[in-house]
Amino acid sequence: MSVLVSDLIEKGTDRARAERSVAQYREFFATCAAYPDAPLVPTHLCDLAWHAHMLRPSKYARDCMAVLGHIMDHDPGVYRTGPFQEAYDLTRKLVPYGHLMPVDAYALENEMAGAECFREPNQRPDREDPLYIKFDA
Asked: What's the pTM value of the predicted model, to 2 decimals?
């Protein structure tokens, strides 16, 4: 059993749902790697595993660097916007489980609808952020 499945079970998710979540997250992660310039939206089910992965920061950083070459940003600030809807529609076309996602990104009570976040590629650093550090090359 994967560590993420174990983490989800420990937090109260039943085993079958935890396994589905991690399997879907793996497909989402692979799709992010295959389409590095595509904004993509996880489903609610996928987002469970994404959050579990981020709660293991060393593992998350290593996995992201190994597969993507950078840390995959989890952006919650786009829900119910045009860019979110466009990203959701694109995700339905690109991920292997896209045919299971409802057309309505905001379908209530559907674990396959869009989570309240997305992966926005190529985000630039926010120079106004007080934690931003400029590294000279």
From this structure: 0.86
